[in-house]
Amino acid sequence: MANFFPKWTNWIPLKMVVILIVLGNAATAAVWYYFTPKYTRVGYQPVQPVPFSHRIHAGQLKMDCRYCHSFVEVSYHSNVPNTQVCMNCHSQIQKDNPKLAAIRQSWATGQPVTWMQIHKTPDYAYYNHSVHVNRGISCVSCHGRIDQMDVVYEYQPLSMSWCLDCHRHPENALRPRADVYNLAWKPEDVDAKSFVAKYGKPPGEEDRDFSSGNVKLTQQEIGLTLKHAWYVNPPENCAGCHR
Amino acid sequence: MKRVFEHPPEPQGGKKYWRSLDELAGTPDFAASLEREFPQGAAEFNGGDVSRRHFMKIMGASTALAGIGLAGCRRPEMHLVPFTRSAEWVIPGKFLFYTTSRPAARGYVPLIVSTYEGRPTKIEGNQFHPINGGHGRTDHFTQASILNLYDPDRYRCFKNASVDTDEAAFIAALDKIIVDYSANQGEGLAFLMEEDPSPTRERLRAAVMAKLPLAQWCVYEPLGGNTADAELTAFGSGIRARPLLDKADIVLSLDSDFLSPTEGTIEQTRGFTDKRRVDEPGHKMNRLYVVENRYTITGGMADHRLRIPASEVGVFAVQLAAELASQTNDATLAGVAQSLGKTKATASFPEGWIAELAKDLLANRGRALVMVGSQQPVAVHLLGAAINSALGALGNTMAGILPVSAPTAKIGALADSIKQKKVSTLFILGGNPVYDAPAELNWASLQESIPTVIRSGHLLDETSNSANWFVPRAHYLEYWGDGRSSDGTYVAVQPMILPLYGGWSDIDIFARFAGLPKPAGPELVQETFRQIAGPVPDFAAAWNRFLHDGYLAGSDSSTQRSLFFLSAATGSAIGEKASLNAVSGAGNYEVVFTPDFHTFDGRYNNNGWLQEAPDPVTRLTWDNAALISPVTARELGVQNYEAAGDTIEITLESGAKLEVPILIAPGHADRSISISLGYGRTDTGRVGTGAGYNVYPLRTTLAPYYVFTQQVKFTGGRGVQAITQQHFNMEGRAQIREGTLAQFAEDRTFAKTMGMDEELPKAGNPTIYTHPPFTGMEQWGMAVDTNTCTGCQACVIACQAENNSPIVGKEQVINGREMHWMRIDRYFASYDDTDPDPEMLVEPVLCQQCENAPCETVCPVNATVHTPDGLNSMAYNRCIGTRYCANNCPYKVRRFNFFDYTQRPIYPVKTPFGEIGGLHLGPLTTKGSPDPIKMQRNPNVTVRMRGVMEKCTFCVQRIEEARIATKVRAGASDNIKIPVDAFQTACQQACPNEAITFGDITEPEAKVSKLRASPRGFRLLEYLNTSPRILYLARLRNPNPRMPGADKLTSFQKKEKGGFAAEPSGAGDFSGGPR
Question: Which of B79, B771, B945 to mutate to test the interface with A (most CBs of A within 10 A)?
Answer without folding.
Answer: B79
